[in-house]
Every structure is written in structure tokens, then in C-alpha cells.
Amino acid sequence: MTTAWNEAEREPILLQVEEAEIGARLDQFVSNGSELSRSAASRLIEEGSITVDGAPVAKNYRVRAGNTVEIMLPTPAPCEAIPQDLPLDVVYEDDDLIVINKPVGMVVHPAAGNPDGTLVNALLYHCGTSLSGVGGVVRPGIVHRIDKDTSGLLVVAKNDETHLTLSAHLKGHHINRIYTAIAVGNFREDAGTVDAPIGRHPVDRKKMAVIRNADLRSRDAVTHWRVLGRGDADGSAFTLLRCELETGRTHQIRVHMAYTGHPLLGDGVYGGDNTKFEARHRALITGQCLHAGELSFVHPRTQQLMNFSAPMPPDMQRVADLLFGE
């Protein structure tokens, strides 16, 4: 599949059908080749906003060799986050920054499909106008992010000077972020490093992947890991890990662990949700077992080293107890 963008408008998107994709349903083909979900692609096809060789077709149309699929995206509605009175677990706060322990299931900032109910909406209610504007109206104060189904610590800036300083520290690898993870399988070593570049998955555009092809975009990514515990249940082995980020790419720990053959327990995107243990304890495992438990950085104003920690959420702690003992 090859893609062409109109850079001035970011529309239309043109997708060329390649040999390996012949016979795919149009809605799935579009989803694989763009940022659209399959349901969003289906809706645009029904509206006539996606055409094949210039003509509208049904969403179950099977793409053919040489087809050109044109996606005409609608003009996005103006988006601005609004304050919402939502629970916040505030670990630390001063005039310059706030450290939050984010729960599983909360998105960090509004985006397509998640216009509200996010951490940013809660922060706007809690902090009022005292959030930095560097991230724009949708991401005020946001220095770094963690996935919706990952819990744990992140620091938010209350003014532009703090935001710019923390962003520089993050880029320079001077903000220390340590995660606790439960991986499927047993690691042979007690510690190690995954040094493998990460980029957008070449087929499934909603996923990331280790990309070593120089023709495809990727960025250096390094994860240091150490075994904290080993266990087994229902015929499968599991490993409790301490993972320290040297870089901070999207889905980095999830992608790197899957790349080693040990996806995170409960991670349906990267293959960690097919164990008997996960099936038996589905009520506890609502997403990947990954928790940002430790965060440290130098305070931009006071120059003091700030260290924070947060325990695993109760469900993940219960899973760890079942697998690795009390």
C-alpha cells in the first residue's frame, strides 16, 4: 500500500492497492492504511466520502489490483478541552507543577473518540487557568503521556517555563520513569536491555512496531528491564519486571516486550491476552499489566531532586499476588 497526502489540507488521502492487499474488504483496507478505525471507515464509505477509482462503492467491496482509494476527510470541528469535575489522585502539587497517579481506563487528553472524561478535563477543573499553554488547548500542561490502560505517575506543568524545562529534561533523558510490568513467559536472563527502534506499524496503522527498515520511519528506543519475580499458572509462565525507560516512544514497553516474545499480560493489541490465566481472571485484567510506579526529576524552579512512587492499582496487585505470591 502506498499513501499520498495533500500536505496543505491533509486531505484527500490516496491509497494505492498493492499485490498483497488484493481481495481485502474496503473498510478493512482503509483502516489498515490510515488512522481511521474500521467503523469510522465504514461510516465514511456509506457517506460517499471514500471512493474507489473516483466512484462510490459498498463497504464490503473487495479491493483489486491497481485500485486508487480516495479518502476525503471531513473538516474537523474546533476542539477545546473543557473543565470536568472528575476524581484526581494528586501525589504532589505546587505553584509550578502537579504529579498525578492516573488510573487505568483514563485517557490523558481529548482526541478522536475521547472528547471528554480525560485527565486534561479533570486538570482544568482542578487547576483552573494555572496550566501551561505549551501543549495547546487540547493538551495544556501535558509533558509526557501514558496509555489509557496503563496506570501510574506523570508530571503536568502549570506554567510555560516549567513546561519547556521539563520537556527539555525529558528529551535529554533526565526524567527517570520506572514501570512495573507482568509479562507472559519466562525470561532466561535476570536483566537485560532492548535496544530496538520503534515506528508506526507498516500495515496496522493503529499499532507500533520495531522497525529496522531504513525506508520506514522509526526512532531509537531503549528499555532496560530486570526480573523481580517468576511464577506460573494454568500451564503458562509469567515474569514480574521492572522496566526503566531510556527513551519514551509510543507503546515502548509493550512493543519491546512483545518483540522479545514476552508480551504483557492482558495486552490484546500486542498478543498478551490469549493465556488461560487471563481468560480465568478477565474481571481483574482490564488491559495490559503495566504501571508507571516511579518518577523522578529535578524541579525546574528549586533545582531539588523530586522522587515519587505509587503502588500498583488493586486489580494489578491482586494479579501479581496470584502469580508471584503474597
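the 2nd protein, sequnce then structure:
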Amino acid sequence: MYPPDLVKPMKEDLTNAGFNELTTPSEVDEIIENSGDSLLLVVNSVCGCAAGNMRPGVKLSLNNEKKPITLATVFAGVDGEAVAQARKHFLPYPPSSPSIALFKDGKLVHFLERHHIEGGTAQMIAENLSEAYNQYC
């Protein structure tokens, strides 16, 4: 577990952009089951690729004309039970931090694993997500 003071600005990077912070398994299940049309669920983390590529790319993707109705995030290494529950909904993909999941009507339709994130730029991540939004949102 990381100290709360260390992760607070990393969490706020997404919550200040409109993401709901999920900290329990029941919150994860509830938002996936009741998010309506579309949900973007981000597994945030302390790693450099989350700070340099993932969070900026996710926020940039929200400038797209079409975008998810609901935004949520869990934090790996902090909200362990919530992250574990989210990962159950990501199957068949293996655990990955950071990662980004797009759900349509409660079903996983698009997923970016760490290896998609750490090798790309924020712009590439935003473009990938925007294409998925155009298709599913």
C-alpha cells in the first residue's frame, strides 16, 4: 500500500477531470452494472507511464465529440479489493496496471493493457480511445 499523501495528487488528476473514485468491490460492481450506455474505467497507478502517458491520454480523449457517459477509476496498490473486483470484469485480460477499460451496456468492449500504454504517447492513447468512443459511445 502506498501512503495516502503520495497518491492523492495522482488520484485527483482523474477525479478533478470528472472520474468517480471507486474504493470498494461493491462500488465497482454497481457502476459497471448501472452505468447505462457507456463507462470508462481506469486502473490508475503510481508508475511513470501512468503519469506521463495514461492519465494525460485519458483526459485528452475526453475532448472527443463522442465519449463515455460515466467515468470511474480505481487505484492499484491502494484500493486493492476494488482493483481486484474490476479485474474480474476485465477477463480474459490478465491483471495490468495501469489499464483502461471501456464498457458498453455493462460489457467490456475495449481494453488497453499496460504494454499498450507504456510504449505509447498520450496522443496515441487519446486517439485509440477516441476511435473506441466513436464506435461504442
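Residues 4-136 form a domain with the Glutaredoxin fold (CATH 3.40.30.10). The chain has one domain: 4-136.
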